[in-house]
C-alpha cells in the first residue's frame, strides 16, 4: 500500500511550547459519504473485510484478565463483547456467556482498550462519553489468511510508552526502510488519533500517532476524536498466546499490510479497533485529555483481544465472507442481533469494584492513578497519595521516576512495579 491508501499526503506537524503536538490534516468522517470515502481509501486493496459493530459497552472497570488475572487492573478499561468477561476470563468463560454487546451472536470474543478522561485544572477527572461503542474491523490482508486459533489472545500497544522516536509525520510508505520498519517503529505506528469534523474530508487512518492537545481538539475536532489501533497479523504459526501476549506475533512491514518478518510468515486475520469519544462536551473547559492509564501523550494507547468465536464460525467466515462491502449483513453465516439488544449485554462487575465510581475521581484518575507525561518510560506505575497536586495538566513533565524508589513515598508519590515489561 502507498501513503495515498491511508487517505492522502500528510502535512508537517508542529510541537508547541507545552510539548503538545498539532497537525494540519484534513479532519472529519462518518457522514455516509465520508464513510464510503474512508472505506475506499483504507480498505480497497484488501480481498475482503467486515466491520463488526459493538454498539453496547459491556463494562467499564479496572478489569484486565490478560495483564492482571484475578485481581483489579491498575487502570480502567472500556470493555466490549462477551458478558463472560471477568478478571479471570478465558475462552471457555467467554463462550459460555449468555450474550455479547457486539452484532454477531456467534462472536463471544472480548475487546478492550483504555477509556478517555478529561482532567480539569484542579486535577479532578471525568469520563469522556463514548459515541457508538466500538467498531472492530476484520481484514483479510495477505495470502492464506487463517482464523484465530482456539484460545488465541493478543495485545497491541504499550501502556507505559510516552515517547516517539521516529519521523513526524510518517514518511511515504514507499520510503520506509531501516528503523522505519523495525518492530518497535511499527508497533507505535499502529496507534492513531483521528480528529473528526464531518464538514471536511476525512483524515487518514493511523495518520497521527499521538493525542492532540486540547487547543487543537477544540479548534479542529468539531465531532470528537476517534482512537484507533491496529493489531499485528504476522503469526509464528503455532502459539495461541505468549507470556507477554505479544511475542507470538509481529507486524507486517507496512503495519496493516506488507511483508512478514522471518519466523512469522503465517497470516492471521488483521484486526483494527476504532472508538469515538465526545471531546466536544469539554470545549469550554480548561484542562487536558488523558487516557485512563495515566497517559496524556497517546503514545501509551493499547488494545487487548481474547478470542471467543463459536468453533468453526470464524474459519468459515474467512473463507466465505468475501464481499468487499465490509457490511456484516452481507455475510449469511452471521446471526445478527439488533443494536438495542447489544446495549443490554453487560458484564458482572466484581464485588471489590462495584462501588468504585469510574466516571468521576478527585485529584487523579480512578484508583488514584497519577498522570505521567514522559518522555521517560512510565514504569513503575505512579499513584497519587496527597491532596496537593505535584503534576498538573499544564505542566510539562512529571517528577523523575528514576529518582524515586519503588514501594517508597517521596512527597506525594507512591510507586509500584507494573505487569508490563519494557
From TrEMBL:
This is DUF1996 domain-containing protein. Residues 394-405 have a biased composition (Polar residues). Residues 406-422 have a biased composition (Basic residues). Residues 394-422 are annotated as: Disordered. InterPro entries: DUF1996. Residues 64-309 form the DUF1996 domain. Pfam families: DUF1996. Signal peptide: none annotated. It comes from Aspergillus nanangensis.
Amino acid at each position: 500500500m502507498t501513503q495515498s491508501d491511508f487517505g492522502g499526503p500528510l502535512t508537517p506537524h508542529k510541537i508547541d511550547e507545552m510539548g503538545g503536538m498539532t497537525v494540519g490534516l484534513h479532519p472529519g468522517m462518518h457522514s455516509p459519504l465520508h464513510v464510503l470515502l474512508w472505506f475506499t481509501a483504507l480498505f480497497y486493496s484488501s480481498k475482503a473485510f467486515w466491520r463488526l459493530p459493538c454498539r453496547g459497552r459491556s463494562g467499564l472497570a479496572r478489569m484486565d484478565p490478560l495483564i492482571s488475572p484475578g485481581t483489579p487492573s491498575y487502570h480502567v478499561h472500556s470493555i466490549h463483547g462477551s458478558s463472560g468477561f471477568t478478571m479471570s476470563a478465558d475462552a471457555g468463560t467467554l463462550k459460555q456467556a449468555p450474550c455479547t454487546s457486539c452484532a454477531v451472536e456467534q462472536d463471544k470474543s472480548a475487546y478492550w482498550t483504555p477509556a478517555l478522561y478529561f482532567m480539569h485544572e484542579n486535577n479532578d477527572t471525568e469520563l469522556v462519553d463514548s459515541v457508538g461503542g466500538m467498531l472492530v474491523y476484520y481484514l483479510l490482508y495477505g495470502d492464506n489468511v487463517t482464523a484465530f486459533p482456539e484460545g488465541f489472545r493478543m495485545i497491541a500497544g504499550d501502556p507505559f510508552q510516552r515517547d516517539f522516536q521516529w519521523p513526524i509525520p510518517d514518511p511515504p510508505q514507499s520510503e520506509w526502510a531501516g528503523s522505519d520498519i523495525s518492530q518497535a517503529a511499527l508497533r507505535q505506528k499502529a496507534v492513531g488519533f483521528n480528529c473528526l469534523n464531518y464538514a471536511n474530508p476525512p483524515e487518514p487512518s493511523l495518520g497521527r500517532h499521538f493525542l492532540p492537545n486540547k487547543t487543537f481538539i477544540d479548534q479542529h475536532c468539531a465531532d470528537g476524536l476517534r482512537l484507533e489501533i491496529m493489531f499485528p497479523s504476522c503469526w509464528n504459526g503455532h502459539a495461541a498466546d505468549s507470556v507477554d501476549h505479544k511475542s507470538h506475533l509481529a507486524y507486517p512491514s507496512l503495519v496493516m499490510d506488507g511483508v512478514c518478518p522471518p519466523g512469522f510468515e503465517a497470516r492471521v486475520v488483521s484486526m483494527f479497533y476504532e472508538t469515538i469519544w465526545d471531546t466536544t462536551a469539554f470545549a469550554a473547559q480548561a484542562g487536558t485529555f488523558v487516557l485512563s492509564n495515566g497517559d496524556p501523550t497517546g503514545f501509551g494507547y493499547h488494545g487487548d483481544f481474547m478470542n471467543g468465536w463459536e468453533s468453526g464460525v470464524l474459519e468459515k467466515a474467512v473463507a466465505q465472507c468475501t464481499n468487499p462491502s465490509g457490511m456484516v449483513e452481507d455475510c449469511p453465516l452471521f446471526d445478527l442481533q439488533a443494536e438495542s439488544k447489544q446495549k443490554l449485554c453487560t458484564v458482572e462487575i466484581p464485588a471489590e469494584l462495584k462501588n468504585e465510581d469510574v466516571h468521576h475521581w478527585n485529584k487523579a484518575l480512578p484508583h488514584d492513578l497519577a498522570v505521567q507525561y514522559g518522555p521517560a518510560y512510565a514504569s513503575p506505575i505512579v499513584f497519587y497519595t496527597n491532596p496537593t497536586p505535584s503534576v498538573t495538566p499544564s505542566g510539562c513533565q512529571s517528577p523523575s521516576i528514576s529518582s524515586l524508589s519503588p514501594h517508597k513515598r517521596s512527597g506525594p508519590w507512591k510507586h509500584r512495579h507494573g505487569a508490563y515489561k519494557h
